[in-house]
Specification:
Mean pLDDT: 94
Number of strands: 11
Distance between the termini: 21 Å
Order of helices and strands: EHEHEHEHHHHEEEHEHEHHHHEE
Largest sheet: 9 strands, mixed
Structural class: alpha/beta
Oligomer: single chain
Helix content: 25-40%
Number of helices: 13
Radius of gyration: 19 Å
Length: 389
Amino acid sequence: MTIHGRAYVVGAYEHPTRKAPDRSVAQLHAEVAQGALLDAGLSKDDIDGYFCSADAPGMGPTSMVEYLNLRPRHIDSTDIGGASYLSLVSHAAQAIAAGKCNIALITLAGRPRSEGVATGITPKLRNPSQPDFQWEYPYGIANANGYAMCAKRHMHQYGTTSEQLAWIKVAASHHAQHNPNALLRQVLTVQDVLDSPMVADPLHRLDCCVVTDGGGALIVTRPEIARSLQRPLVKLIGAGEAVKHQAGGYFDLTTSGARWSGAQAFAEAGVTPADIQYASIYDSFTITVLIQLEDLGFCAPGQGGAFVADGNLISGVGKLPFNTDGGGLCNNHPANRGGMTKVIEAVRQLRGEAHPAVQVRDCKLALAQGTGGMLATRHGSATLILERE
C-alpha cells in the first residue's frame, strides 16, 4: 500500500534524561507519550492506534495500553532491533491509509545504562530455540566484534582507513556540543578517536555508540487532522523495509539491508539521494554509518571512506549533514532501538526546530535510516523519507 503523503508526523518528543535510576521503563514510555501529545496539541483520548516494540515491558502493547489507559482499535509491536521504530512509523502510516486508525502513538523507552547492560561487548543471549543459536553462541559473537569484522573486511576490500571512520565520530561530536542533553558533548578530533582504547580491532572505544537510558515518542495522523493542528506539516512520502541474512553462505560483510529498504523508499517517494538535504543514519558504530551511506546511494560502494572524510557530514560544512543531535555515537542510544531518535531529529530539521548551529537551511527533504540486529550476521533495515509541506 502506498503511503506517499497519506500520513503526517505531528508530534515528536525525546526524553531529556540519559540516566533514569528512579524510573521504570513503563514510566519512561508514559513520559515520552505525554511529551509527544503536548507537542502535537492532542490528548491521550485522541489516540486510536498504539505502536511499540520489544522494549515495552510485560506483554508489550497489551501491558502498555493498560498502563497508559488507552483504547486503541489498532496495535503493532514489530521488532527488528534498531530499525523497529522506523518500521513502526511506516506501519502506522499504512494503518492510517487503510482506515484502521486516525491518530497513532508510537513510544520507545529503555534503561540499559541504569541496568548496567554492556550492549556491545557481551555475547548476545538468545532463545536456544532460535535456529542460529547453536551455531553462533558457542563462539561468543558480540556486537563489537561482529561489526569489527565488517570494518576489517571493508578496509581489506576497499582500502578504508581508521582515520576515515573516525571522521564519523568527529562529525557527531561537532553536533553534540550544541545539544544540552547529549551524553558526550566534547568536540573530538580524529586523533582522539584513534587514541581511544581498542575494543575490537579495528574499532576503538570512540567508534562505538553511547549506552543511555531514555526514550522518545512520535504521533502520526492523517492529513486532514494534521492540517487542523498548529504544527509544521511533516509528511511521510516514502518507506522501505528489508531483512538481510547470511543467505546460506552467500554473504557480503560490506553491505547492509539499506541497499533494499532505501531503494524501496526512494522509489515510493519519487526522489533520489541527491535530493536529500539531511540524513539521520543509525550509528551503533562508525562502520555502521559508512556502510549504510554507500547502500543508500549517497556514494558508490567502497567510496564511503572518502565521502565521510574531512568533515563532509558536519552541518554547515559538508555535503550531507547527518545526526545533528549527536546521534547514537554521542547523544542518546536507549534500549538497543535507537531508530526512534533518528526520526525525531529528522522531524526537528524539517520543522526548523534543530539547534540553530546545526539547522540545515531551508530543509525540505530528510531521510531516516535504521539498522537492527548485526551487520555481520542478520539484521532488519528500515528507511523513511519525510518532506516538509
